[in-house]
Amino acid sequence: MNIEDIEKRASPTKVSDSVYLNTLAQKPGSEAVSEGRQVRSGRPAAVCLGLLCVLLLAVITGLSVTHNAEREQLWNRYNNVTVERDQLLDANSNLTLERKKLQSSCEVLTRERDALRRNLSDYERLFLQEWKQFGSSYYYFFNKEKSWSAARQDCRERGADLVIINSREEQEFIKKENKYVWIGLSDAKSEGQWKWVDESPLSTAFWRSGEPNNANGDENCAVFSTTADTLKAWNDIPCSYEAGWICESTQPYVRRLQ
Ligand code: MAN
Ligand code: CA
After folding, report:
1. DSSP characters for 45-91?
2. What is the spatial distance between Cα 49 and Cα 46, in angstroms, rounded to a whole number?
3. Which helix (H) or strand (E) holds 141?
4. Which of 126, 137, 131 is nearest to 250 (CA)?
5. pLDDT at position 253, please?
6. 223 contacts 235 by C-beta, under 8 angstroms
7. CA-CA 20 to 30 A from 70: which of 17, 86, 106, 251?
8. What is the pLDDT along the chain (258 residues), one digit of tens a residue?
9. pLDDT of residue 122
């Protein structure tokens, strides 16, 4: 028996210790083997991870570029909208100003219209007071004296004209005033061709007996004279003579008399 055998017998644990130690001594070697396998299997994963990172970076970069472009567009639109809003605000305040101006001029016009309406009703009253109505016409008998042309001018300035007598009834209506007045009848343009001031020829005539006689070859205007016979009242006399006159208007409004 040698010393080693003695030692094995004396402390059998030592043997097992030595086996244990050997086992321990072998362990690092076995770990290195398994690590080598791990490195070999981790490489593709790392490559994949790298690729993923690159892909992610590319996606992030792309998104960032897109985002920046969109932000730029939005910013431009925001600026445009702001400019448009300012323009609209300006236009709105201009319109508000104009509306106020129009409102005030409308008020002025309304006041003027009301004043004119009052004036008009005054005129109507005056007109009805001073002008006599017969049928569909209004008549005014002037006592002042003027030539035939001046008398006619006076009527025309009032929106009327010298009277035109179209019927026996109208003749009778005028006769009632029994005044020496011009009527709107003349043959100044063509001797013997008697025409009313509206250029119409005589439809019915109420001349005095023996008239018209164109005395002295100078009687071209007709006057309504104060005779006893209602239906024989007209005479021709020189147009330059002065007489009263009768204006006739078919319009309801005639300018205020002086
Ligand atoms: C007389 C007549 C009329 C004439 C007048 C003129 O009355 O001769 O025919 O028109 O005078 O004033
Ligand atoms: Ca005459």
Report:
1. HHHHHHHHHHHHHHHHHHHHHHHHHHHHHHHHHHHHHHHHHHHHHHH
2. 5
3. strand 137-146
4. 137
5. 61
6. yes
7. 86
8. 444 443 444 444 444 444 443 444 444 444 444 455 555 568 888 999 999 999 999 999 999 999 999 999 999 999 999 999 999 999 999 999 999 999 999 999 999 999 888 887 777 776 667 889 999 999 999 999 999 999 999 999 988 999 999 999 999 999 999 999 999 999 999 999 999 999 999 999 999 999 999 999 999 999 999 988 999 999 999 999 999 999 999 876 655 544
9. 74
Give the atom of ligand 1 at the shortest distance from the alpha carbon of 211. Answer: 9
Give the domain extent around 199. Answer: 132-249
Please report, for the domain that includes residue 242, its CATH number.
3.10.100.10
For ligand 1, whether the C-beta of 207 sits within 6 Å is no
136/79 same-domain check? no
Instruction: Give me the amino acid identity at 258.
Output: Q
| Same structural domain, 227 and 149 | yes
Tell me the best of 182, 211, 213, 218 to mutate to test the pocket of ligand 1, counting ligand atoms within 8 Å of each CB and taking the most. Answer: 213
In this structure, are residues 134 and 243 in contact, taking their beta carbons and an 8 Å threshold?
Answer: no
- Please tell me the residue having the least CA distance from ligand 1 atom 2: 215
- 8 A C-beta contact, residue 123 and residue 132: no
Structural domain includes residue 127: no
Task: Return the closest-CA partner of residue 220 out of 186, 258, 185, 171.
Answer: 186
Q: Which two tokens stand for residue 122?
A: 């005054």
Total structural domains within the chain: 2
Task: Give Cα 231 to chain centroid, integer Å.
Answer: 60
112 domain residue, yes or no = no
- Looking at the fold, whether 160 and 243 belong to one and the same domain comes out as yes
